[in-house]
């Protein structure tokens, strides 16, 4: 049986170990700022940005991951290992393959706006995802300067529905400088990701949190040599106020039917007081008689739109 031929790099490593060469590699902890395919940008504790290769047997790292890299005087830096994640934000990819987007996220900032229109279905899907993944959720009603008086009352009613469930609801406008200090306080010392449909103002809110975001993006491109195309990937930015923002340009909404979410009623906060009180222990809260959730909807204790969005998710998973 012929011996496997070693690569030149492998031979060098073996020789270094034998000779006790001073050109040995050292392990350093770093934070992934961006992944661009085969390479990732990693920030060390001293602030240095390094473009690193990653081991072929290592799962793809994403923005927010903590990793151990090897620094060698003779070779480019390499990501050797991935440290445990406390959370992972994912999205459905091509043919239903679930793709990780950002790691170690603390909260999703779900943005809705009167223009192009408030998407309550997206809002409820996003809240369900946060409950399922153990993430905090903050609801941001943006562009409030565009609210007409007759629309204002409906938004106040929505705010009451969601704050009664314990969700944080803030109202913002970058044009009228409304709510931006509250947004900064919410992001302080946390890792956050904006989520919302196109046109709701995520970029403007990002600019409010990071006024020099364009300069930072250019500096990142220049320092890593990966080019401006990297802005299509999730990118981590340090906030001057404390905390981090991961700009996940590739994720706008969550199609939960692609995720394997069992018993989604557990992740609808307003359903929880009524779970276990239905006539049937396996009640889906759809067609069964004696359903405590349906009774709560009829008595308007649970908002009708929330119940309808639950049914849409339930049927998409069956």
Helix/strand/pairing category = alpha/beta
> How many structural units, i.e. domains?
3
**Fold-level CATH name of the largest domain:** Rossmann fold
Low-confidence stretches: 16-24
β-strand number: 13
- Distance from N terminus to C terminus (CA atoms, Å) equals 53 Å
Radius of gyration: 24 Å
Helices and strands in order:
Blueprint: H1 8-19, E1 26-35, E2 39-44, E3 49-54, E4 66-72, E5 75-82, E6 88-92, E7 98-103, E8 107-112, H2 120-133, E9 136-141, H3 149-164, E10 168-171, H4 180-187, E11 191-195, H5 202-209, H6 213-224, E12 235-238, E13 244-247, H7 292-298, H8 304-316
Parallel strand pairs: 3-5, 8-9, 8-11, 9-10, 11-13
Antiparallel strand pairs: 1-2, 1-4, 2-3, 4-5, 6-7, 12-13
Helix pairs in contact: 2-8
Structure report:
With 318 residues, the chain is of the alpha/beta class. It has three domains: 19-82, Nucleic acid-binding proteins (OB fold (Dihydrolipoamide Acetyltransferase, E2P)); 88-247, 3-Layer(aba) Sandwich (Rossmann fold); 262-316, Probable gtpase engc, domain 3 (Ribonucleotide Reductase Protein R1, domain 1, Orthogonal Bundle). 28% of the residues lie in helices and 24% in strands. It contains eight helices and 13 strands. It has helices spanning 8-19, 120-133, 149-164, 180-187, 202-209, 213-224, 292-298, 304-316; strands at residues 26-35, 39-44, 49-54, 66-72, 75-82, 88-92, 98-103, 107-112, 136-141, 168-171, 191-195, 235-238, 244-247. The strands form three sheets. Strands 10-9-8-11-13-12 form a six-stranded mixed sheet, sandwiched between helices. It has a five-stranded mixed barrel with strand order 1-2-3-5-4. It has a two-stranded antiparallel ribbon with strand order 6-7. It starts with 7 loop residues before the first helix and ends with a helix.
């Amino acid at each position: 049986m012929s011996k496997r031929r070693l690569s030149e790099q492998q031979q060098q490593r073996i020789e270094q170990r034998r000779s006790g060469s001073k050109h040995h590699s050292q392990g350093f902890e770093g934070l992934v700022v961006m992944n661009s395919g085969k390479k990732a940008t990693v920030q060390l504790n001293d602030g240095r940005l390094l473009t690193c290769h990653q081991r072929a047997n290592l799962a793809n790292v994403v923005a927010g991951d903590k990793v151990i890299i090897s620094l060698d005087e003779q070779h480019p830096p390499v990501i050797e290992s991935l440290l445990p994640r406390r959370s992972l934000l994912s999205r459905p990819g091509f043919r239903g393959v679930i793709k990780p987007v950002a790691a170690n996220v603390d909260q999703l900032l779900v943005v809705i706006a009167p223009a192009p229109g408030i998407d309550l279905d997206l809002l409820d899907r996003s809240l369900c995802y946060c409950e399922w993944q153990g993430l905090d959720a903050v609801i941001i009603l943006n562009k409030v300067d565009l609210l007409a008086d007759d629309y204002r009352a409906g938004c106040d009613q929505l705010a009451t529905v969601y704050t009664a469930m314990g969700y944080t609801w803030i109202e913002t406008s970058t044009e009228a400088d409304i709510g931006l200090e509250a947004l900064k306080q919410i992001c302080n010392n946390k890792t956050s990701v904006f989520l919302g449909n196109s046109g709701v103002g995520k970029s403007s809110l990002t600019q409010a949190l990071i006024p020099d975001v364009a300069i930072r993006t250019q500096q990142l491109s220049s320092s890593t040599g990966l080019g401006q195309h990297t802005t299509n990937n999730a990118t981590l930015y340090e906030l001057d106020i404390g905390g981090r923002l991961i700009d996940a340009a590739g994720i706008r909404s969550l199609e939960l039917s692609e995720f394997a979410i069992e018993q989604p009623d557990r992740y609808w906060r307003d359903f929880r007081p009524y779970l276990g009180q239905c006539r049937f222990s396996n009640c889906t809260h759809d067609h069964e008689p004696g359903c405590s959730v349906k009774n709560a909807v009829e008595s308007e204790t649970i908002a009708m739109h929330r119940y309808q969005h639950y049914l849409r998710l339930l049927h998409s998973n069956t």
